[in-house]
Structure formats: C-alpha cells, structure tokens
Amino acid sequence: MRRTALAALAALAVAAPLLTGCTAAEGGSPATGGSSGESQEHAHSQVTIADGWAKAAETGGMTGLFGTLENHGDHDLVITGVESDAAEMIELHEVTADGVMREIEGPTSIPAGGALELAPGANHIMLMGLTRELLAGDEVEVTVRFDDGTSVHLAVLVKDYSGANEEYDDGSAHADHDERAEH
Ligand SMILES: [Cu+2]
User: Fold this and answer.
1) Where are the domains of the chain?
2) What is the Å distance from ligand 1's center to 129 Cα?
3) Which of 77, 140, 154, 175 is the most buried (most CB within 10 A)?
4) What value does the mean pLDDT take over residues 146-162?
5) Cα(63)–Cα(125) distance, rounded to whole angstroms?
6) Using an 8 Å Cβ cutoff, are 85 and 130 in contact?
7) Phi and psi for 152 in degrees, rounded to 5?
8) CA of 14 to the centre of ligand 1 (A)
9) What secondary structure letter does DSSP report for 114?
C-alpha cells in the first residue's frame, strides 16, 4: 500500500542478503507470546522468503501467502506467530490429501539451513478477514515470529491466481476436521 510493486521487489532483492547479517546482539526480553505492537524490539531472524506471493482477494475475504521460507541460521526455528495489518486473523494452514485445509496442529519449524515450502494446495500462511482489498500488483506485508524471540518482516507481491481454492471458507471446516486431526 505504501510502496509500488516494483519498489517491493527491489526492496526484497536488497534485503535478502542483508537479513543474514543483521541479527541484533541485544539480549532483550524473550518472546512475549502476546500481540503487543512492540515489534521493533525483536531481533531479525536469519530467515528470508524466496518467490513470495499472495493471492489477490477482496476486503473481508481470506487469502493464502506462499513462498519458500529459508532459514540461514544455525538452529531450527519454530514459528510462534504471524502478524499483519492486512488481516484480522492469521494462521498457518495445511491442506489434507482430500483437499481440505485446516490449521496446522502443533509446532511448525524451519530447520537450520533448510526451508519451509508454502505453496497452493499445501502449507500456506492464511490471512483471514482482510482489512483491505488485495489487488494484483499490490504488496502485502507480514511479520513472522520465532521461538528464539527473533522475527522477520516479509513483503510479497499480490498476484491474480485461479487456484488455491481448497475449502477457503469459514471455521466450519476446522470444526469438522479438528477431531480427526488430533487422533
Ligand atoms: Cu488456509
């Protein structure tokens, strides 16, 4: 919203190499687990996103954010939360073999030196209750927090996409599948 898509791409291009070198040495407070807005205090994680994008969607709707989260650090990172001013609620979702998506149960981690793939029809970051329309060419920004107290700010391009329509409805799918998922 504040930048053009081209600027976003340029920012990503230069930010990626920088991210690996800017882990702040502040021994600040551990992750609060809360939803305070004091994100500036968090040290940057050594995580970058490759080929990040989100599907265009309407205000009040929901959409998926995709890409490859790469952990350039030397320890595994567990995702503890995802925040964005573009959505009222954000969850990490998976898609089952029968095409139903649901919130991922248990911890989701990015292995040291490894990656977490987010793709249509598979794991994704689900943005629900969009606070504004996401049009192709827009940029959407999210902050992903990790269990070591670090976080990474990601800005990805919005694209028109006709897929990724697996059960993108309200919480009813979750209610139906929660029990099955837990046993
Ligand atoms: Cu989803």
Assistant:
1) 5-21+44-182
2) 12
3) 140
4) 96
5) 8
6) no
7) -135, 135
8) 30
9) -
